[in-house]
Amino acid sequence: MFNLDEIYSVSNFLSLCNKTVENNIPTCWLQGEISNLARPASGHWYFSLKDNKTQVRCALFRLNQRNVKFTPENGMEILVRAAPTLYEARGDFQLIVQQIEPVGVGNLNLAFEQLKSKLTDEGLFDPSHKKILPTQVNTIGVISSSTGSVIQDIIKVLNKRYPFADILLFDSVVQGQGAAAKIEQAIIAADNSQRCDVLIIARGGGSLEDLWAFNEESLARIIYHAKTPIISAIGHETDTTIADFVADVRAPTPSAAAMLATPDKLELLSRVVKLSSLLRQQIAQNQQRQQAYLDQLQLRIITPDRQLNYLSQQLDYLSHRLGNIITSIVDSQKFKLGSLSSNLKQHSPEAQIKHAITLNQLSAKRLNQQISQLIQHHKQTLVQLNIRLKNATRQLINQQKNQLANHAYALEHLSPLSTLSRGYSITTNTKQQVLTLTTQAQSGQTIQTRLSDGVIYSKVEKIEKN
C-alpha cells in the first residue's frame, strides 16, 4: 500500500521541481547557437540555444531587450547570461535570458576600446601631433580600391571643385584578411614617393568587421609616423575607426575629404576679384593723399611763376608715374586671370580627343597602305607560281608521253604476235596447255595451232619422233 501523503498533483510536483531548480542552480553564462527563433506579437523572443550535442529552450522577455543592440538570427553564435527555471504550464525546462551578446562582435568592440585607450595614453591622438593641411595642393594621393565607387566620387568632386591638382591612386584592398597590410604598404609607398602634398585614406561604409582593417595597431602607427598630412574618410559619418583618431584630419565622407584637401576654384576667383577691388581702392586712396599733399604744397607756394611751373612738372611726373603703376597693376592682374583661364582650357579633354582622332586616322591610313602592298605582293607571287606550275605540268606530260612511247615499242618488240608473223606458230591442247614435246600429244587428240592471222583446229593422225 502507498501513503496518500506521498501523492502529488502534477502542478504541485512541477512547482516543487521549479523551486528546486531555481534554488540550486545559479545564474550563469552560456555559449551556443540560436535555432527555432520566434518573435510573437507580445514582443518576447523565444529560441533554442544549442551546441553539437544538446539544446535548451530560452526566453528573452521584452523588458530585458533594452540593451540589445543587434537583431538575433538563426545560426548566430551568442553568449547569454541566464537563470534556469521550469515552465510549469508544460513542464518544460528553460532558461530565462537576462543578457545577450553576439560572439565575436563583442570581442571586437572590446579590442577596439582597449587599443583606443592604449594609443590615447601614448599620445597618438594628441592634437599637438596633427599636421596642418597645405594651402597649395598640386598632387593628391588616394589610398583606396580602384574597383569601388569611392575613387570615382573623389575624382568627380575634385574635377568640379579644383581641377588643377593631379590625383595619384595607390590601389589597395580595403576589406578582408590581409587588407591592413596592403593599406600599410600603400601609405608607405605614397609617403616615400614625396610626390603628394596630402593623402586621403578612403572607403565606403560597412559593419565593424568590414572596417576592422582600419582598427589595426600597426596601421595606426604608420599613419602617425607618416610625413605627409593624412585625411581619413572611412565609412559613413557615424562610423569611427582608430585610423580616424590618429589621422591629421577626419572627413565624414570621401567627397568631404576631397573638399577638405583643396580650395574651391570659385572661392579663388572671388578672392582675386576682392584683391583687385582692394588694390583699386588703395590706389585711389593713395592718389587722393598725393593730391591732398599737392594741394598743401600749392597753398605753401609764395614763389614766382618758375617755381609754380616746376611744381606743375613734378605733379605731371607723379601723375604719369601713378598712371603707369595703375596700368602695370591692372595688366598684372589681367595676366594672372589669363593664366588661370589658360590652365582651365589645358585641362579640357577636347585637345586630347582631337589628337587621339588624328592618330587613329593616321594609323588607319598606314594600315590600309600596308594591306594593299601585302595584297599586291601576294598577287605577283601567285602569278609567278601559276606560270611555274603550268611549265612544270607541261614538262611532266611530255616526259610521260616519251616514257609511254618507249614502253609501247618494247611491248611490241616482245609481243608473241610479232614472233608468229615471222613464220612461227604455237600449238596447244584443249586445256590451253602449250605443246613443246611429242610426248604431250596423243593420236586422235584435237589440237589448236595459233598463227599470226588466226587459229587452226586439227586432229593428230600420227606421231613421229626425231
Any key phrases for this structure?
single chain; 466 residues; alpha/beta; OB fold (Dihydrolipoamide Acetyltransferase, E2P); Rossmann fold; five-stranded mixed beta barrel; five-stranded parallel sheet; 11 helices; 18% strand; coiled coil; hydrolase; nucleic acid binding; nuclease
Helix/strand layout:
Blueprint lengths: L9 H15 L3 E11 L6 E6 L4 E6 L16 E11 L4 E11 L2 H18 L16 E6 L5 H12 L4 E6 L7 H15 L4 E6 L13 H9 L4 E5 L7 H5 L2 E2 L3 H8 L3 H36 L4 H42 L3 H65 L1 H5 L5 E3 L17 E6 L2 E6 L7
Parallel strand pairs: 3-5, 6-7, 6-8, 8-9, 9-10
Antiparallel strand pairs: 1-2, 1-4, 2-3, 4-5, 11-12, 12-13
Helix pairs in contact: 3-7, 4-5, 8-9
What is the compact description of this entry?
With 466 residues, this protein is an alpha/beta fold. Helices cover 49% and strands 18% of the residues. The protein contains eleven helices and 13 strands.
The structural class is alpha/beta
- Morphology call: flat
Q: What kind of assembly state do the chains in view correspond to?
A: single chain
What is the helix tally?
A: 11
Order of helices and strands: HEEEEEHEHEHEHEHEHHHHHEEE
Compute the number of strand runs: 13
**Which regions contain 5 or more consecutive residues with pLDDT less than 50?**
none
> CATH top level of the domain at 108-129 and 136-263?
Alpha Beta
Instruction: Tell me the strand percentage band.
Output: 15-25%
Instruction: Evaluate the radius of gyration.
Output: 56 Å
Q: Percent range for helical residues?
A: 40-55%
**Spatial arrangement of strands, main beta sheet:** 1-2-3-5-4
